[in-house]
């Protein structure tokens, strides 16, 4: 089994266990951190266990095959995803000037991070998502206009996530600069960067391929909510 197979479950039972809530054969992140959830196996027992954890919340899962409707669950959306990995171990050269624009984001930046992700929709992002790893940003006239950071972590691998740029600041190369620095820090720890991207996001995929990412597998993202009787 590859370390990136069933990656949410793997993260919640290893490097992100301190953010995990578990029941039976399912795990989920604390709601303020992320709606991402996983089960040991995609079967009836997994969904029953997840139902006990979900309560009234929507949860998000990564599946190997498209979600098949279940009477106890309501689908709230989803999309095919590419899981991409950067194995080449090299990052593009960064100038001192480009790096000088980067700032490390923390709890004090959470409202601005939430505002930017709400506008650009890079994926689920909550008030405590920044606690999962290092997040870097670029501000212009005090406003957070671009960011990228780390999300899922499993042994030997760290996910690059929340790559987003304000629409008024596209075309300045911010995403590449931010990703290269996030990837450099991941490699400095002896780990391999990976990421997830919607299959229909051609602009982002083109950038990721230029940075050395290659598609490993196609997965299926599903947002689910329990049907409460």
Oligomer: single chain
Reported by name, the CATH topology of the largest domain is Aminopeptidase
Number of domains: 2
Tell me the distance between the termini.
Answer: 38 Å
Which term fits the overall shape?
globular
Order of helices and strands: HEEEHEEHEHEEEHEHE
Q: Percent range for helical residues?
A: 25-40%
Describe this structure in words.
The protein has 6 helices and 11 strands. It is 25% helix and 35% strand. The chain has 2 domains: 7-81 and 219-226, 3-Layer(aba) Sandwich (Aminopeptidase), CATH 3.40.630.30; 84-217, Aminopeptidase, CATH 3.40.630.30. It has helices at 7-13, 44-54, 96-100, 110-120, 174-188, 202-210, and strands at residues 20-23, 26-29, 37-39, 58-63, 73-85, 102-105, 135-140, 143-154, 157-165, 192-198, 214-226. The strands form 2 sheets. Strands 4-11-5-10-9-8-7-6 form an 8-stranded mixed β-sheet. Strands 1-2-3 form a 3-stranded antiparallel β-sheet, with helices on both faces. The longest helix has 15 residues, at 174-188. The radius of gyration is 17 Å and the shape is globular. The N and C termini lie far apart (38 Å). The protein is α+β, with helices and mostly antiparallel strands and 229 residues long.
